[in-house]
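Same chain as my last thread, 603 residues:
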Amino acid sequence: MKTSLISVFCMLFSLSVSAQWKPAGDLIKTKWAEQVNPENVLPEYPRPIMERGEWKNLNGLWNYAIVEKGARTPQTFDGEILVPFAVESSLSGVQKRIDDTKELVYQRTFEVPSTWKGKQVLLHFGAVDWKADVWVNDIKVGSHTGGYAPFSFDITPALVAKNNKLVVRVWDPTDKSYQPRGKQVSNPSGIWYTPVSGIWQTVWLEPVSEKHIANLRILPDVDRNILKVDACVAEGAATDMVEVNVYDGNQLVASGKSINGQAVDVAMPENVKLWSPNSPFLYTLKVNLINKGKVVDKVDSYAAMRKYSTKRDADGIVRLELNNQPLFQFGPLDQGWWPDGLYTAPSDEALRYDVQKTKDFGFNMIRKHIKVEPARWYMHCDQLGIIVWQDMPSGDKNPEWQMYQYFNGRERERSAVSEANYRKEWKEIMDYLYSYPCIGTWVPFNEAWGQFKTQEIAEWTKQYDPSRLVNPASGGNHYQCGDMLDLHKYPAPEMYLYDAQRPTVLGEYGGIGLVLKDHLWEPNRNWGYVQFNSSKEATDEYVKYAEMLYNMIKKGFSGAVYTQTTDVEIEVNGLMTYDRKVIKLDEARIREINQRICNSLKK
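reply #2:
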């Protein structure tokens, strides 16, 4: 009876908390919005490339206040906000705008589990846009700038036995400053969308030993059949040993060890399984940190044996290759926006849905367009077999345009602080995503938006990560650097330039619009490059463009990106509606032509 009463009380408490929160506004929402529970928001482990068994999720209802920039932390708050949804989003329960004169203050309390006694406690943020200052029990534990990469602080010295207070202050100037922001603008219209401010990915706690694995950098070498695992060890010593065990399912197939901070080179089995969109095989990794014969830390991870490169074919065309075989990489422009959560998907199921539908449509690649996703999105791409072209979110003078220049045109100059911030955030993003196998191409610039020192940035990107290709400026001012020439042409595909020394790709085309009345962000305002009145007409146009693209492959195209996965705000040129409730085009017809394109270079 006692257990039953406790269960009833917990259920009633949960219902009471849920009743206090509801999505704000009356705009369209996905089906997953109805399933959001403030007591269990995005409960999945947030860092799948380096997983530990113990952690605590801090997502849920926090206190919030919007204050003048620089004002003192308030004693009373404006209400509650559902973390990790941005303050401008419906799922935050707030849906308010802030500007560069305001700051957003978050506050909550938390308990540290008693089983963590003697451990260091790390406070992790998946992403906060843009400048975050963090206090625990009124002790400042750190600051971070950058809206797209994770960061963490060791908060152990600031903790008390019970009822710890956490305060986060965020300043986000959106388009009033130089920082990367992608499609966010103060006045959304056309291809520019609602601002996203504050915490927008999972906040969590993790206990670790003083000596622990702080990061993994995993690099497959297909040509030598070696998997390199570089474990960065906090408080490391020369006597530390890192042990890596590689599993195919439950079977141990390879292992390796190293000491003195050296990377572990694991010799993979002769019958190694390669990762590809048709066979996205992932090996399980178990990494142990051993000191004086004792395991002091261990993490679970995964890896794929795959290689991204380019090579000239028998016809003299330089092609993109995967695992030393030519592969035409074809996928949608994926903006990663949600009508209810903006930057944040309402659930992990929703996050995976877009990747799965991309696969269902017959694509083998996604261009992640001037946004960076939570780590689990890349895990889904790894698992489902989708190559990712990863854009750097644009900023500074975005969206101002210069006259198009082809090869050696004049570039925009940035201030020293803007340039330094770009380099810092781009490095953080590459570090964050380095070990995810799906990342095949880095894209530092898009369409001359904030583009500067292209050759230098492209060369530095390639030097920093030689294992990926570099697309120096997708559709932008073009220079003879990096690994490919990327053209943009709307609506129909066209090869108006060709590079005989690098692969030539079509980084954007299409934009076929179809308005579906009950699935619009703004019923009286919508936009597409071309618009049609029925699914059949839009599908016919898609197939017509795809046939044109197919015929250009033998003339020199080696990859292409169709605009786009979903409608976004007033853009109506998605393969799906913004609320993901309708697939707008004929999926079977799209899949058939897409697969023909993806398989066009197979021997």
